Amino acid sequence: MNFAPDLATVTHGIQLAVAPVFLLTAVSGMIAAVAGRLARIIDRARLLENRLEAGGVEETRAIKMYAELQQLRHRGWLVNSCIALLTFCAMLIGMTIIWLFLGETSELPTLKIATVCFLSGVVCFLLALVCFLAETLLATQLLKFAELPVR
After folding, report:
1. pLDDT range class, residue 44, cuts 50, 70, 90
2. Are 96 and 40 in contact (CB under 8 A)?
3. How far apart are CA 129 and CA 134, in angstroms?
4. Angstrom distance (rounded) from CA 55 to CA 60
5. Rounded to an integer, what distance in angstroms lies between the CA atom of residue 83 and that of residue 115?
6. Lowest mean pLDDT among 33-37, 77-81, 106-110
7. Least crowded by CB within 10 Å, which of 14, 83, 102, 110?
């Protein structure tokens, strides 16, 4: 494997490889936001489980709490899927950066590999956005806008 001997080629390789880093920035920001949502889901589930385990909850209220726990479980699954997809996206974008740099600074034929890695990373990012949207919609279904409390 021969590497590029001149500074201009190496500099261009770095510039080419750095472009996908902006997508990595978006991915890391989204992971932080989604992890925050997961923390809130876990906190709410623990609160409900502790109340149920402590006892003294009337049956109709307990049924509603178990239904909410089921929805929280579903939301948690969506958030975990989102985080997994974002992690795969970051790994694929990282591989894209490596392949682009190697392709520019060596004689390796890496264009097809870099293209597949980048497009796969974008697909993972889009699927993560779908999971995020689904979780957000599910979360708003739990809200009780302007409902009067039942007495």
Report:
1. very high
2. no
3. 9
4. 13
5. 23
6. 106-110
7. 14
